[in-house]
Amino acid sequence: MPPTPKPEFPWWLAAALVLALAAAVAIASSDLYAQVFATVTKGIGITIFVTAVAFALASALGLGIALMALSGSQWLRQIARFYVEIIRGVPILVLLFWIAFAGAPAFVAAWNALSAPLQSAGLMGELLVRDVSLLWRAVMALTIGYSAFISEVFRAGIQSVEKGQIEAAKALGLSRVQRFRLIVFPQAIRTILPPLGNDFVAMVKDSSLVSVLGVADITQMGKVYAAGSFRFFETYSIVAYIYLILTVGLSLTLRALEQRLRRQHQE
Asked: Are 210 and 50 in contact (CB under 8 A)?
């Protein structure tokens, strides 16, 4: 057996840390950069909220679409394929505009029209939906847009499990839910985790698109500050710096988790 090659020293990471340290020193030593940094970081909470909620919802919806695509019903498979192909064919920014300015108002109007007779009959109190905030419209758009991609990740991971193990589980009398929970998903997660992590990092970056709706995320706070101060170079340098810290940090964390799972599997 050939010897296992030694892992290369991550020079790229060392260079990135040096640049990050230099940027931190510049921020600490410059009143202008410190002011820009303090302003832009006010949007970190919104960025994290939008990403976390949209990714959780997209993962749940994507898993449901993947199970439909793998079901024994031809109709469910065709519906899942239709959803995936249509949603993946629309740019995220266009989908964001459509959900915000067409889909959400149409949903509110339809809900109010359907619930009005129930309200007049005394079966309901106030109308449950009067409006949908721009923040939640952005979350809905990212959820729908990413669910189509995530569903393909789940589908590929589930299909990677050997059919012989599933047949053995059937022979033992396990139900479909038990087979999925005890046999399929624990093995599929090792295949699913790396691309799912990539989608999560990509969503952190695509969450910047919600700024076009005026949602006060990192990018929007930078746009507002730059428009008022005309300090475009300093502002967008800080915005890029913060996004790099978030995305590179997440990538390293996910890579470490992936290696840990791989070592556990080998043991």
From this structure: yes
